[in-house]
Amino acid sequence: MRANKPEGYLSRKLNKLSRKYYYFPKVKRFMAGKSGLEIGGPSQIFSRKGYLPVYPIADTVDGCNFSNNTVWENVITEGPNYHYEDKMLGYQYIKDATALEGIDSEKYDFVLSSHSLEHIANPIKAVKEWLRVLKKGGVLLLIVPDKNYTFDHKRPFTTFEHLMDDYNKGTTEHDLTHLEEILSLHDLSLDLPAGNIDQFKSRSQDNYINRCLHQHVFDFTLLEQVFNHFKLKIIFRKASRPLNLIIMGQKQ
What we know:
Elements: H1 9-31, E1 35-39, E2 60-65, E3 69-70, E4 74-75, E5 79-85, E6 88-94, E7 108-114, H2 123-132, E8 134-145, H3 160-169, H4 179-185, H5 197-205, H6 207-210, H7 220-229, E9 233-240, E10 244-250
Parallel strand pairs: 1-2, 1-7, 2-6, 7-8
Antiparallel strand pairs: 3-4, 5-6, 8-10, 9-10
């Protein structure tokens, strides 16, 4: 005999579904039947069973990853082989997120990025490039981790002034400015794959190759400052517990 569900399970499930279907129509109208680019995917949250199931309703989704061998995707190759949902294929680019040379300006109706921006040493440069390939009227949907539920929970939030300083200095992915802070405040008990402190330090010092570091720590205040800097019209923002801060803005 199947065990009864815990008291309140059904109401929690319904609340979760209602929140999902309240917010997804705000996304769907900009992406249904449209073409998009995803930075650092594919991502479960955009899949058919995800919180924001963009993949099954889009016409096409291309992908961009910084290397042909990453911690998250393993070995990938550039070409028409971006597997983002079942048998759906887009074009896989191998390019740094801050330098999308070879992709035409205003090519895409939407740009997606889930848990990628925090890994980038120069986020303003990255977002500027993502907006270059986005059509006017198109949308940028960003998802970053909520530090309160991750190994970053001891770290301070990054300031907008810091991001602008990185942009003005032309900070590159070779930068390890934040390494001392990360080594002292990173909660390894919540990041078991990182190993012990010596293993974590060794991996972090090789960040240009693996891009595992969270270079910056975002909250909604910082995300809104970035969007306002680029004059993006904020369509919605949502904290999807326990991990995601979600924000979507429209290019004017």
